[in-house]
Amino acid sequence: MQKRRTFIKTVSAAAVAGLILPKHLFAKKTEKQIGIQLYTLRDMIKENFEETLGIISDIGYQTVEAAGYSNRKFYGYYPVEYKKIIEDYGLESISSHAKFSLLDAPKVIEDTLESGGKYLIIPWLSVEQRKTIDDYKKLADEFNKVGQLCNNAGLTFGYHNHAFEFEEINGVVPYNVLLENTDSDLVAMELDLYWIVRGGYNPQEYFDIFPGRFKLWHIKDMDTNKEMDFVPVGKGLINFQAIFRQQKKAGLEYSFVEQDSHPNDDPILNIKTSFNYLNNLTEY
């Protein structure tokens, strides 16, 4: 396949003098707005950020979620630089994962807005943060405070789950504590469909009990083997058709394909497979 930048140079040479063709003119577009969490291609991104974005765009993805924010930069770029690069490839950065404290929230919010983001997500909790139910109640209180700061700035704050939030502590499900003790107007949930299923729960049941709370989803599939490996979307046991049928009740606004690891060592094939499955999913 001809590399994007080489292709652009070739076309530009044949065009009128001085004409600059933006990269996004060559990106596929579909009626469905399918997103990807960039953590899925983290190794490729380390090698070449822009070429990886080109691959993502060529497949047909339209939105991305960042997982490379640190020292006030996204993947080593200042927020405005990151935003421009993303847009040059016909993509939109909807959301960002960032681990930060309440004290650091104002600058993280500022950077996320400058990057073009609409959502700011806490992606995980350390063991020290989540030992007891009281710990989760304290976290919920802090989430409300961060959520208020985000809300004031025109950003939505959210939390991304793993499976540990569904492990009972003294008979109580921690994830429920977070949902019950956070303000639905201030804190959204980014529901990771793989991890909630691995945690032993049905996403649809949560949509019934907490409607409208799950504005972002990670679309991630689970192998049928005993290791419950990550597999491309549509190649595992999760019933996405049934889950997406309830997207309005859930409050879904954006969703992102994610695959934490690639057992077959072919991440590009995997994200193509996931994209094609979702693009053909009638309920998506």
Verbal overview:
It is a single chain. With 284 residues, the protein is α/β, with parallel strands linked by helices. Helices cover 39% and strands 15% of the residues. The protein has twelve helices and twelve strands. Strands 1-2-5-6-7-8-9-12 form an eight-stranded parallel beta barrel. A two-stranded antiparallel sheet has the order 3-4. Helix 5 (105-114) packs across helix 6 (133-153) and helix 6 packs across helix 7. The model is unreliable at 1-22 (pLDDT under 50).
List keywords for this structure.
single chain; 284 residues; alpha/beta; TIM Barrel; eight-stranded parallel barrel; two-stranded antiparallel sheet; 12 helices; 12 strands; 39% helix; 15% strand; disordered N terminus
